[in-house]
Amino acid sequence: MPKAKTKKSKYIFLFVRIAVIAAVVIWAISRIGQEQRWNNFVDYFQQPNFWVFFAIVLLIFVIGQSIIGLRWWLLLRTQSIFINLPAAVRLHFLGLFYNNFMPSSVGGDLIRAWYVTRHTEKKFEAALSVFVDRVIGLLSTIVIAGFFYVFFLQGKAVQIEKQENNGLIDSIIRYKAIIFWVFVVFAAVFLGFLLHKRGRKILRKTWSNLLVLIINLSTKFRKSIMIYCKKPSAIFSVFCLTVLMQMIVITGFWILGRNMGIETSLKYYYVFFTLTWVLGAIPVSIGGAGVVEAFLVLLFVEIAGTDEAGAWAIALCQRAVWMLASLPGAVIHLLGAHLPKDFFIDYDEPVA
Questions:
Q1: In the Cβ-directed half-sphere of 90, how many Cα atoms lie within 13 Å?
Q2: pLDDT tens figures, 194-233
Q3: Domain locations in the chain?
């Protein structure tokens, strides 16, 4: 019975993620489907040397993803988990493929963590390295967005922020009844467990196991974080490397946009791309598809004043680059290059 419920919840979650993508696709078609706007949209892809610049951006992005593999490799070595660099890069591209193509709830980070923890005694530390790797990536994007927002866009975005805050408050007021009944149902279920003898036993056992788990994980977490804290220069170097890589990638998209005839300033790219990357990390669709594009178009149009057809063009170019750069992960999976025999983890000899 629990397995059936779990399977059902996975299908519901998958349906929601696909529905989000479908909704954005329908919205995009309705916006750029008009004849004049469609002609403008097509013109952006017919500029001289468009494919040359697109290929350059794709190459830059692939190199950037290899650097992310290097970043994770360095974090693993900080925890004395030794995996060779090519294997770390291969696992990263495998995770990238899962993030952008696989319609499941298993993300690329879980894939990386799963393959590493199978072949080292330091399972928690290995999984933590994936988490730290993701945190560093998100922090670097927030730093870039925050810097350029504060120094270049703060005055222009104040009105937009106020509108968003009012919309959030209005949404809470509008759905206050639903929020109330969700709370009531949760409280009723909890009260039902308290009134039933077997329910109280389940709650006590669950709470006891949860406390033991929290204590064990917190101890390992503290020890692992202390190791990272003892090597601040390594963490700072990884962070700076990430910021530099992301800025190079975004600059590449700006150059591509200029070639397409999109005259938007580079400062907008640094803020809008990084913000949408953070939003894309929320698992409400497959690889952030639809979410990233929708918000990127809204930001370019409403704040930068970019032509809507041009905003959709650069947003779809980014998605195309992401998906093409993910294809090596499919090859790695088909060839079995991600399997344990390819790793050198905690040993001087290959693991069979």
A1: 19
A2: 677 776 777 677 777 667 656 655 665 565 566 667 777 8
A3: 50-157+228-342
